[in-house]
From TrEMBL:
Natural source organism: Kockovaella imperatae
Signal peptide: none
UniProt keyword Thylakoid, yes or no: no
PROSITE patterns assigned to the protein according to its UniProt record, in alphabetical order: ADH_SHORT
UniProt keyword annotations, A-Z: NADP, Oxidoreductase
InterPro entries: NAD(P)-bd_dom_sf (IPR036291), Sc_DH/Rdtase_CS (IPR020904), SDR_fam (IPR002347), Sec_Metab_Biosynth_SDR (IPR052178)
Protein name (Swiss-Prot/TrEMBL): NAD(P)-binding protein
Family, as annotated: Belongs to the short-chain dehydrogenases/reductases (SDR) family.
The organism's place on the tree of life at top rank: Eukaryota
GO MF annotations in UniProt: oxidoreductase activity
UniProt KW NADP keyword: yes
Cross-referenced PANTHER family: 7-ALPHA-HYDROXYSTEROID DEHYDROGENASE, SHORT CHAIN DEHYDROGENASE_REDUCTASE FAMILY (AFU_ORTHOLOGUE AFUA_7G04540)
Length: 315
């Protein structure tokens, strides 16, 4: 295709305006774990721009409070709470039935539900083989490991396949140009080589989520389903599972905290705006699948540098 033919349909039109590039008005979305944190940010951003969003979680009161607080101001979008534990097939079926009752297709599935179980503190125990062994063997259980992987990885697998027909129907029945697409929320913890003080269970689960996303994107593409699957790896964002001790009235102290305690070279944590911009870029880009996107303010780059310095000094 020539350059002229490639641009012929868009140059001289408003097709490249921001409003058209990231338009989700009239779309239908599901966000698991959408009642708090980045899940709620995702749901609120989509709804504010005209998307009908179903949010799920185990606690109905939390979901209803979130839906009310994040209700879109322009009246075009909508947030609908659905109680259901996606860590079980029964919960996933309940969520799917709630969506199927009112919708014929699904444009966006955001697998966001996540847990962080207790773990041994590998850096705070006696730094001997015996001390580390005791800390990591006796203070952890198979149950906490299983639950971490059940929610953070297995639920993404089962939820995606449960909604696959509805995702495909976005194109076949909804008349959209593309089938629905999936975002799996992993973490920089699934990329870093450190255990981050001993959270082997969480980090390995997030690493598994990243590879699950790659396999799903490949198998769906090979079968011609048209369903895109991408993975997003957030760094530090203010939430119940992340940054909690930010000095609100002292920007300099906050920047210093981020650079020292959290090792973020930009000296900031992510904001709702940063996250929403990433979400919109993924869900609207029809040529994007199998991608592993990092949004971390340079944190992983810092970790790579620390490793390089360590090995240089040890060599």
């Amino acid at each position: 295709m020539s350059e002229f033919a490639l641009g012929e349909s868009v140059f001289g039109t408003d097709a490249l305006s921001v409003q058209k590039l990231f338009n989700v008005e009239g779309w239908v979305a599901v966000v698991t774990g959408g009642g708090t944190g980045l899940g709620l940010v995702t749901a609120a951003a989509l709804a504010e721009n005209g998307c009908k969003v179903y949010i799920s979680g185990r606690r109905l009161d939390v979901l209803e409070k979130a839906a009310k607080a994040a209700s879109p101001k322009n009246g075009k979008g909508q947030i609908i709470p659905v109680q259901g534990d996606v860590g079980t097939k029964e919960g996933i079926i309940k969520l799917r039935e709630a969506v199927e009752k009112n919708e014929k297709w699904l444009n966006i599935l955001v697998n966001n539900a996540g847990v962080s179980e207790p773990h041994g503190e590998i850096d705070d125990c006696e730094q001997t083989p015996e001390g580390v062994s005791k800390e990591m063997f006796e203070k952890e259980s198979f149950e906490t490991w299983a639950n971490t992987h059940r929610i953070n990885t297995a639920s993404y697998h089962f939820t995606t396949f449960a909604f696959l027909p509805l995702l495909c129907a976005a194109k076949s029945k909804g008349g959209f140009r593309e089938a629905g697409n999936v975002i799996n929320v992993a973490s920089l913890s699934g990329i870093t080589r450190t255990s981050q003080h001993g959270q082997f269970n969480y980090n390995s689960g997030k690493a598994a989520t990243r590879h699950l996303s790659l396999m799903l994107s490949t198998d769906f593409a090979r079968r011609g389903f048209g369903v895109r699957v991408n993975c997003i790896n957030p760094g530090y964002f203010p939430s119940g599972m992340s940054v909690k001790d930010v000095p609100k009235d002292d920007p300099e102290a906050a920047a210093n905290l981020f650079k020292t305690k959290y090792a973020i070279p930009f000296g900031i944590v992510g904001t709702a705006k940063d996250y929403a911009q990433t979400i919109f870029g993924i869900v609207t880009n029809e040529y994007m699948t199998g991608c592993d996107i990092v949004i971390d303010g340079g944190w992983l780059a810092t970790q790579s540098r620390c490793l390089a310095l360590f090995f240089r000094r040890s060599g």
